[in-house]
Design brief:
568 residues, alpha/beta, TIM Barrel, 2 domains, six-stranded parallel beta sheet
Length: 568
């Protein structure tokens, strides 16, 4: 027992026993007996026999290394650490090889053994890292993208995307359809889906229209929605609709506290942030807004605001929003900059936003690609003095509903509509086209529709925003390149919402939200006065792995789901 070589002999014996165990286990697993594998291995690796052979071979290899170490120890004439070092190195190398085998088999095994639900072949997807379109086949299983590559795995359904772009589904970070009742139609969301949108963000401009829990319950009752839905809580809704304060009323801190309690409930239900429509309620002070934004210390919440004033005062309105953002540690989004600044002040406003964004990337904006805005004719937007302010006339306002559907205003019609039909949406042709293009092309801004309708009537932006950007501003006018435009519609809003690990990108493991379109023909169809004209060039829209739209026909209104802030 006092012999110093005894320890070497004992190590050799242990290595012999380990050799026998490893080789036996390796032979058993190699023959497909997987009981000794972990549940994760058996669950993740579809081609289990192939993986068992590889795994068993590695165990046998480790057993052979143990045998060599046993021989080295038992034949050694002096005490040394070489057998232990050799076995340690061998163990590490075999472990690395096992990990490589597992990773390869969990991907390739699945490709070989699992029948894909959908395989999109011969298309090109935007690779945002390289800034190029990459040709690949894309496989979908369930709600996820499970394959991106050159192979052609078996699939239940194959979509030929030759000469097509296979884009991540468009994300509309700012639209309006927040109050659907059971039995009602998803009018705006259907239009979203038809233009390639797979995820829409509602509750903007302070107008959520109902508590978040009610909206969630509604989606559950209806069995889903045409697109995925993200909501913010709207400050104006609680200030005006719930508590009954007038648009120009000033309020005190006790009111602010009441509104914060309502918003806390929405945030607890999964709201992504807080929105304001400052122009719609001019009584809102910057102190009230700052107090509201501090309802939570969460730096990941999104704050978005419809400006206070447009036209000549647009820079002042943007500066107010910069001041708000700098008072907190949250993301801030200037809503639809187009209708704020495209009245002669776009360059100045873009310069201000770009400068602030360079210092603080949390500050950003969205915009839509039309030279006309829309709001209800009874809103404060159309209060006395608006025409002088814009340098426009009554005839630049088009009404969208009976008894004045598609009618250009006169003084008499304008006043009658304001008095008797205040909820009627009006379209105001007051913005400059070149400034709209500048906003769309700006590197940091996102494309968003601000889509809203009343009984299916209103501005065509609700139905044609995204194909319009790709057709008019990319292909026809060359204001920006295709990859940049797609990034503004997909990855950038996904990053803004912090869901870019699952949406806004084509990769294995991402949500199967996909829009397939022809870059040579895509263009918006909806017109002012007739929003039902179909878009062109969009072949398929896939939401959560289900084909929701094919050739402009809605196939399902239940593929979408509510996305909670806590599930992102």
């Amino acid at each position: 027992m006092d012999n110093p070589l005894y320890s070497m002999f004992l190590f050799g014996v242990i290595m012999i026993a380990l050799t026998v165990q490893l080789i036996i286990a390796g032979l058993i697993i190699r023959r497909g007996k997987s009981a000794w594998l972990t549940d994760m291995q058996k669950r993740k690796v579809a081609d289990l026999p192939h993986y068992c052979r590889l795994f068993g071979n590695k165990l046998i290899l480790l057993g052979l290394i143990a045998a060599v170490c046993s021989y080295m120890a038992m034949t050694s004439t002096e005490v040394n650490l070489r057998p232990i070092i050799v076995f340690g190195i061998g163990l590490v190398l075999v472990a690395i090889l096992m990990i490589i085998d597992y990773r390869r088999c969990s991907r390739e095994g699945n490709r070989r053994a699992i029948m894909l639900d959908i395989l999109i072949v011969s298309g090109k997807y935007p690779d945002y890292e390289s800034g190029t379109l990459v040709e690949a086949n894309i496989g979908i299983t369930g709600e996820k993208i499970t394959y991106v590559g050159k192979e052609r795995p078996e699939a239940k359904e194959v979509i030929d995307a030759k000469d097509r772009v296979v884009s991540p589904g468009f994300i509309d970070i700012h639209m309006h359809e927040e109050n659907i009742k059971e039995g009602d139609k998803w009018v705006i969301s259907n239009m979203m889906a038809k233009q390639g949108v797979t995820t829409a963000g509602g509750g903007h401009c302070g107008k959520i229209k109902q508590p978040l829990k009610d909206f969630k319950a509604m989606i559950k009752r209806l069995g889903g929605s045409p697109v995925n839905y993200i909501l913010c809580t709207g400050y104006n809704y609680y200030r005006y609709d719930v508590l009954g304060f007038g648009h120009y009323d000033k309020t005190e801190k006790d009111v602010w506290d009441k509104i914060r309690e309502y918003m806390k409930e929405d945030l607890a239900e999964g709201a992504f942030g807080i929105t304001f429509g400052i122009e719609y309620d001019p009584g809102l002070t910057i102190e009230e807004i700052k107090y509201a934004t501090n309802v939570s210390d969460d730096p990941h919440l999104l704050i978005a605001a419809h400006y206070r004033e447009d036209g000549a005062l647009a820079p002042q309105a943007v500066q107010e929003m910069i001041d708000i953002q700098e008072s907190m540690d949250k993301k801030f989004q200037v809503s639809h900059l187009s209708s704020c600044a495209a009245l002669g002040k776009m360059k100045e406003c873009l310069d201000m936003i770009n400068e602030e964004n360079a210092k603080n990337p949390k500050f950003n904006f969205d915009t839509y690609p039309y030279n006309a805005f829309s709001a209800s004719i009874g809103s404060t937007v159309f209060d006395e003095g608006c025409f002088e302010w814009w340098g426009k006339d009554y005839g630049d306002i088009m009404l969208t509903m009976d008894p004045y559907k598609n009618v250009r205003c006169t003084k008499e019609i304008f006043e009658d509509a304001r008095k008797n039909y205040p909820g009627m949406y009006a379209v105001a042709f007051v913005m400059n086209e070149d400034e709209i293009a500048d906003a769309v092309a700006n590197p940091i801004g996102m494309v968003a529709s601000d889509g809203i309708l009343n009984n299916g009537n209103g501005h065509p932006r609700a139905a044609g925003t995204f194909p319009r950007v790709l057709g008019k501003y990319v292909r026809e006018e060359g204001r920006l390149d295709l990859i940049t435009a797609l990034k503004k519609m997909t990855l950038e809003p996904a990053k803004r919402l912090e869901i870019d690990h699952r949406k806004g990108i084509i990769k294995e493991g991402a949500d199967a939200d996909i829009t397939i379109f022809d870059p040579d023909t895509i263009i918006d169809g909806p017109e002012f006065g007739n929003i039902d004209v179909p878009n062109r060039g969009i072949d398929y829209v896939i939401v959560n792995g289900k084909i929701a739209v094919k050739d402009n026909q809605i196939l399902t209104q239940q593929a979408g789901k509510f996305i909670s802030y806590f599930e992102k």
